[in-house]
Specification:
The chain is built from seven helices and eleven strands. By secondary structure, it is an alpha/beta fold. The protein is globular. Helix 1 packs across helix 2. 25% of the residues lie in helices and 28% in strands. It has a single domain, classed as Vaccinia Virus protein VP39 (Rossmann fold, 3-Layer(aba) Sandwich). The strands form two sheets. An eight-stranded mixed β-sheet has the order 3-2-1-7-8-11-9-10, with helices on both faces. Strands 4-6-5 form a three-stranded mixed β-sheet.
């Protein structure tokens, strides 16, 4: 399983970005990247290692993390930080977490008693559909890489891409335990990307592995990372 990338975990960020560069055959730096669920900026830092000239738009709803992001990328004009969450609607919602700035924070009140984790901290956050931002702030520009790590709400964010889905070259997303809480399945992702003309790859210790067909064995709820590449 592990060699197939299933449960490979969250320590594969650098290899994910390198895999995206290879799959897209990018000889030069990506021009536009989007980091949805930016937390404290580790993924953006990985983007910048490999695509140093990229313009990166970070979306992070937690106030504490926004302050950390502003300090981390102080003076870097190519980094655009937005205190927003991304979903399939424009609204104000409650973000649940176990502590301020938590990487586990989710728009769902996750049930993690079995890990001894209480999700009793609440913060009201603003969420938007990404399509609106793409139209009004990005002026419908082409996006090289869009990453999302939003604790089980990735499918809803994908639905909110709207017409932007046809203008994104690569989408990296996480699938794991949080999808149990949101009752979203890998099958949902598979059909979403197939219908939108993308090929799916799983990140493994040996690089990106193409997934040619959906199998029920793909419903593996330990943190696994995927890349979807738009067919040109």
């Amino acid at each position: 399983m592990y060699c197939q990338g299933k449960g490979y975990g969250t320590s594969s960020v650098d290899s994910e970005v390198r895999s995206i560069k290879k799959l897209l055959r990018l000889d030069k730096s990506a021009k536009v990247a989007v980091d949805i669920g930016g937390n404290i900026g580790d993924c953006t830092e990985s983007f910048l290692k490999i695509f140093p000239e990229a313009e990166v738009h970070i979306f992070e709803p937690q106030r504490l993390n926004i302050e950390k992001l502003k300090l981390r990328f102080l003076g870097q004009e190519n980094i655009k930080i937005q205190q927003l969450g991304i979903s399939n609607k424009n609204d104000t919602m409650v973000l649940y977490s176990n502590k301020n700035g938590s990487g586990l924070a989710s728009l769902s009140k996750r049930r993690l008693d079995h890990f001894g984790i209480d999700f009793d901290l609440e913060e009201k956050v603003e969420i938007i559909r990404f399509e609106d931002y793409w139209i009004n702030s990005l002026n419908k520009r082409e996006i090289d890489v869009l990453k999302m790590d939003i604790e089980g709400h990735e499918l809803f964010a994908l639905e909110g891409l709207g017409r932007a889905i046809n203008h994104i070259k690569a989408i990296q997303f996480e699938f794991g335990g949080a999808n149990i809480d949101t009752k979203t399945f890998f099958q949902d992702f598979w059909y979403f990307f197939v219908q939108n003309n993308y090929d799916l790859f799983r990140i493994t210790p040996f690089g990106a592995q193409r997934i040619h067909n959906y199998k029920e064995q793909d419903e593996f709820f330990s943190t696994t990372n995927f890349i979807a590449i738009r067919r040109l």
